Amino acid sequence: MGRRRDRRVYLGSHPVLFALLAATRRWPVRRWGRTVLVHGTQAYQDTLTRVPLDRRAGTTTGGTAQRLGGSRLLFDEDGAGHRDSRRALVDTLGSAGVARLRPVWTAVLAERLAPLATGGTVDLVRVAAELAGATTVALLGSTADPVGLAAAARRVAATAAAEQLPGLRRPGQRRAARAAAGELTALLGVPADEVGRAAMLAVAAVNTTVAAIPRCVAWCADDRLWNAADTDDSREVLVNELLRVTAPSPLLPRVAAAEGSADGCPVRAGDRLLLVARHAAQAHRQGPDCAAPAPPKVAQLVFGAGGHACPGARLARVQLADTLAALAPYRPVVVRSRVDRRAGLPGWAELTVRGTT
Ligand code: HEM
Prior knowledge:
It comes from Micromonospora echinofusca. This protein is an alpha+beta fold. It has a single domain (2-354), classed as CATH 1.10.630.10. It has helices at residues 2-13, 15-24, 41-50, 61-69, 79-92, 95-112, 124-140, 146-164, 173-187, 195-222, 232-246, 277-280, 296-299, 313-327; strands spanning 29-32, 35-38, 121-123, 251-255, 260-262, 265-267, 272-276, 333-339, 348-354. The strands form 3 sheets. A 4-stranded mixed sheet has the order 1-2-7-4. Strands 3-9-8 form a 3-stranded antiparallel sheet. The protein has a two-stranded antiparallel sheet with strand order 5-6. A hairpin with an 8-residue loop joins strand 8 (333-339) and strand 9 (348-354). Helix 4 (61-69) crosses helix 10 (195-222), helix 8 runs antiparallel to helix 9 and helix 10 crosses helix 11 (232-246).
């Protein structure tokens, strides 16, 4: 049941693209002209860790980062510059940093989930957006309104995805992407030399969280996995399995900067690479299975791999764990779900739950 509902987020947003990816997934690597589809676990890992990638190509996440700031912003950085700016962020998002930020989202959860105690309903997409916006504001020291910031970050990702993913370009798309980026940077209220980096972080943090939390909650509710959310140890396994099967950032568009190889298949400079995190993490094969979870090395591939792997993974896991812990006593069920057809990442526009206890 959980898997059946979750499929709708792919079919509703990019049906042709995901049908193509499903049809080719039996090949670990599949070339299509200058586009290389990378599905296999080993091939995905090799590409992210061994193939030199052009971090500033226009049709990649790094390209979006450039539009946001014009300066260098992690996703589009290489070498020593990347190492320095990444080290600072990894410190901020380490265990002490996450512990410092935690009261911000637990306060949002306590307030917004309260209606469940009196038989009311809650839309988890709204909760996730506020939680992500409030966390990002605290992380950046921004003066923005959390809900407004989350909405602006979601518009940036929606317009960027339309440009990055294969398919027909609509007229005015590039203009819409620039306008959305301008709106977000104007909102942030951080010093001018930090705006680009702050905007990129806001986009990375908000969109993944708004996609991940409602999809994980829906799957947990549909498969009645709430027992596993009751204790710390089993909740940790549940979180890893739910993130693995939902693979919130399912497709990483990249461009090869030089020759390399992915699981033995040659990659040429300039090849457009579509890295399918969802298949690399074997989301389509099995689970979520808390009794026999996938090995951690496979599960963590939904956060990428190598020098650019997601620095927000710990934060994302703790936020999801806290959300599941806060919901579990009510044993919620999904009463309404509506796909977000425009979002940057496959997800719900509405995911309303009601308690059953
Ligand atoms: C479930 C939630 C999340 C998922 C699935 C996710 C996934 C990813 C993936 C797949 C990448 C690309 C990794 C690569 O190229 O190897 C990435 C990069 C990144 N993520 Fe996340 N992410 C999540 C949450 C977050 C959060 C909450 C933050 C910030 C607070 C964040 C910040 C970043 C940044 C800054 C990068 C770029 C790192 C670099 O280029 O060095 N992410 N994420």
